[in-house]
Amino acid sequence: MAQTILVVDDSASLRQVVAMALQGAGYEVLQACDGQDALRYLDGRKINMVVCDVNMPKMNGIEFVRAAKALPNYKFLPILMLTTESQEAKKEEGKAAGAKAWMVKPFSPASLLNAVSKLCLP
């Protein structure tokens, strides 16, 4: 069975680019438009990893990471922040919330797949 990755970004075109790269590498992809939308997927189903933006309406990426990590089933879920934010303070905030890795946009699909292959839970 393919590993499932949840892609959370308020940009539909970016979600599509990430989803195409991941699906091309054999991953199953779920998509959400913000942190609040993403939480509906954390309903007990098996998710191997999350790729999440930081700046989004309703619930931003860091708030989402905190909310996801508070759920017992998703406490150890690896979350990769994929964002335009590159300030150290933001990265530290993400890390403190529980994000495993940080990748700055624009990104290459190859570098994304490389990071995903290292972080994705079996």
From TrEMBL:
Gene3D superfamilies: 3.40.50.2300. InterPro entries: Bact_response_regulator, CheY-like_superfamily, Sig_transdc_resp-reg_receiver. GO terms for biological process: phosphorelay signal transduction system. The keyword Acetylation does not apply. Keywords: Phosphoprotein. It comes from the Bacteria. The modification 4-aspartylphosphate is found at D53. Pfam families: Response_reg. SUPFAM superfamilies: CheY-like (SSF52172). The keyword Oxidoreductase does not apply. Residues 4-120 form the Response regulatory domain. PANTHER family: CHEMOTAXIS TWO-COMPONENT RESPONSE REGULATOR (PTHR44591:SF25), STRESS RESPONSE REGULATOR PROTEIN 1 (PTHR44591). This is Chemotaxic protein CheY. It comes from Candidatus Symbiobacter mobilis CR.
